Amino acid sequence: MEENINTLDEISKGACMGMDATKDIISKIKDEKLKKTVKEQYKFYEDIKRKIDKIYVEYSDSEPHETGSFTKAMTWTGINMKTMLDDSDSKIAELLLQGTNMGIIEGRRIINKKSVDKKVSEILEEYVSKQEKYVEALKKYL
Hints:
Elements: H1 2-25, H2 32-56, H3 69-82, H4 89-113, H5 118-139
Helix pairs in contact: 1-2, 1-3, 1-4, 1-5, 2-5, 4-5
Protein backbone atom coordinates (compact mmCIF):
# COMPACT_ATOMS: atom_id res chain seq x y z
CA MET A 1 0.00 0.00 0.00
CA GLU A 2 2.79 2.42 0.94
CA GLU A 3 4.59 1.82 -2.37
CA ASN A 4 1.42 2.76 -4.25
CA ILE A 5 1.10 6.04 -2.35
CA ASN A 6 4.80 6.86 -2.77
CA THR A 7 4.65 6.09 -6.49
CA LEU A 8 1.54 8.20 -7.03
CA ASP A 9 3.13 11.04 -5.04
CA GLU A 10 6.29 10.93 -7.16
CA ILE A 11 4.36 10.92 -10.42
CA SER A 12 2.13 13.72 -9.14
CA LYS A 13 5.15 15.86 -8.24
CA GLY A 14 6.70 15.16 -11.63
CA ALA A 15 3.50 16.05 -13.47
CA CYS A 16 3.16 19.27 -11.45
CA MET A 17 6.78 20.20 -12.21
CA GLY A 18 6.13 19.49 -15.88
CA MET A 19 3.04 21.69 -15.89
CA ASP A 20 4.89 24.50 -14.11
CA ALA A 21 7.86 24.38 -16.48
CA THR A 22 5.85 24.16 -19.69
CA LYS A 23 3.52 26.93 -18.54
CA ASP A 24 6.47 29.16 -17.64
CA ILE A 25 8.32 28.58 -20.91
CA ILE A 26 5.54 28.53 -23.51
CA SER A 27 5.52 32.31 -24.02
CA LYS A 28 9.21 32.23 -25.00
CA ILE A 29 8.73 29.73 -27.84
CA LYS A 30 8.82 31.15 -31.35
CA ASP A 31 8.31 28.06 -33.51
CA GLU A 32 4.61 27.18 -33.76
CA LYS A 33 5.22 23.43 -34.07
CA LEU A 34 7.37 23.42 -30.93
CA LYS A 35 4.76 25.51 -29.16
CA LYS A 36 2.09 22.97 -30.15
CA THR A 37 4.23 20.09 -28.86
CA VAL A 38 4.79 21.86 -25.54
CA LYS A 39 1.07 22.61 -25.18
CA GLU A 40 0.35 18.92 -25.81
CA GLN A 41 2.93 18.00 -23.19
CA TYR A 42 1.23 20.35 -20.71
CA LYS A 43 -2.15 18.71 -21.40
CA PHE A 44 -0.56 15.29 -20.92
CA TYR A 45 0.72 16.31 -17.48
CA GLU A 46 -2.74 17.64 -16.61
CA ASP A 47 -4.30 14.35 -17.68
CA ILE A 48 -1.85 12.30 -15.61
CA LYS A 49 -2.52 14.53 -12.61
CA ARG A 50 -6.29 14.00 -13.00
CA LYS A 51 -5.80 10.23 -13.18
CA ILE A 52 -3.71 10.30 -10.02
CA ASP A 53 -6.25 12.46 -8.19
CA LYS A 54 -9.00 10.05 -9.21
CA ILE A 55 -7.39 6.88 -7.83
CA TYR A 56 -5.41 8.39 -4.94
CA VAL A 57 -8.41 8.12 -2.61
CA GLU A 58 -8.20 4.33 -2.94
CA TYR A 59 -4.82 4.41 -1.19
CA SER A 60 -4.87 7.41 1.13
CA ASP A 61 -7.14 9.90 2.88
CA SER A 62 -4.76 12.74 2.10
CA GLU A 63 -4.07 14.62 -1.13
CA PRO A 64 -1.34 13.65 -3.64
CA HIS A 65 1.91 15.55 -3.23
CA GLU A 66 2.46 18.51 -5.51
CA THR A 67 5.29 20.94 -5.99
CA GLY A 68 5.51 23.61 -3.32
CA SER A 69 5.74 27.35 -3.78
CA PHE A 70 9.51 27.33 -3.33
CA THR A 71 10.00 24.69 -6.03
CA LYS A 72 7.67 26.57 -8.38
CA ALA A 73 9.63 29.77 -7.79
CA MET A 74 12.93 27.96 -8.38
CA THR A 75 11.59 26.49 -11.64
CA TRP A 76 10.47 29.90 -12.85
CA THR A 77 13.77 31.52 -11.81
CA GLY A 78 15.81 28.74 -13.41
CA ILE A 79 13.97 29.03 -16.71
CA ASN A 80 14.33 32.79 -16.80
CA MET A 81 18.01 32.72 -15.83
CA LYS A 82 18.84 30.04 -18.41
CA THR A 83 16.99 31.81 -21.20
CA MET A 84 18.17 35.33 -20.38
CA LEU A 85 21.12 35.22 -22.77
CA ASP A 86 19.79 32.54 -25.09
CA ASP A 87 16.04 32.28 -25.56
CA SER A 88 16.27 30.35 -28.82
CA ASP A 89 13.92 27.48 -29.45
CA SER A 90 16.97 25.22 -29.36
CA LYS A 91 17.81 26.34 -25.81
CA ILE A 92 14.17 25.97 -24.76
CA ALA A 93 14.03 22.46 -26.22
CA GLU A 94 17.24 21.63 -24.34
CA LEU A 95 15.75 22.79 -21.03
CA LEU A 96 12.55 20.87 -21.65
CA LEU A 97 14.55 17.78 -22.56
CA GLN A 98 16.50 17.99 -19.31
CA GLY A 99 13.33 18.20 -17.23
CA THR A 100 11.53 15.50 -19.19
CA ASN A 101 14.54 13.19 -18.87
CA MET A 102 14.52 13.69 -15.09
CA GLY A 103 10.91 12.49 -15.06
CA ILE A 104 11.78 9.48 -17.19
CA ILE A 105 14.72 8.55 -14.97
CA GLU A 106 12.66 8.75 -11.79
CA GLY A 107 9.83 6.81 -13.42
CA ARG A 108 12.17 4.07 -14.65
CA ARG A 109 13.73 3.78 -11.18
CA ILE A 110 10.29 3.23 -9.70
CA ILE A 111 9.35 0.71 -12.39
CA ASN A 112 12.56 -1.24 -11.78
CA LYS A 113 12.42 -1.24 -7.97
CA LYS A 114 8.83 -1.23 -6.83
CA SER A 115 5.91 -3.54 -6.97
CA VAL A 116 2.69 -1.56 -7.27
CA ASP A 117 -0.96 -2.28 -8.05
CA LYS A 118 -2.06 -2.58 -11.65
CA LYS A 119 -3.84 0.83 -11.70
CA VAL A 120 -0.75 2.59 -10.36
CA SER A 121 1.52 0.67 -12.72
CA GLU A 122 -0.58 1.68 -15.73
CA ILE A 123 -0.33 5.37 -14.82
CA LEU A 124 3.40 5.03 -14.20
CA GLU A 125 3.98 3.26 -17.51
CA GLU A 126 1.94 5.89 -19.37
CA TYR A 127 3.84 8.68 -17.62
CA VAL A 128 7.22 7.27 -18.64
CA SER A 129 6.40 6.12 -22.17
CA LYS A 130 4.66 9.36 -23.13
CA GLN A 131 7.58 11.41 -21.82
CA GLU A 132 9.94 9.27 -23.90
CA LYS A 133 7.88 10.23 -26.96
CA TYR A 134 8.14 13.91 -26.02
CA VAL A 135 11.92 13.54 -25.76
CA GLU A 136 12.01 12.31 -29.35
CA ALA A 137 9.80 15.19 -30.49
CA LEU A 138 11.89 17.79 -28.64
CA LYS A 139 15.22 16.51 -30.02
CA LYS A 140 14.25 17.90 -33.43
CA TYR A 141 14.58 21.43 -32.07
CA LEU A 142 18.11 21.19 -30.67
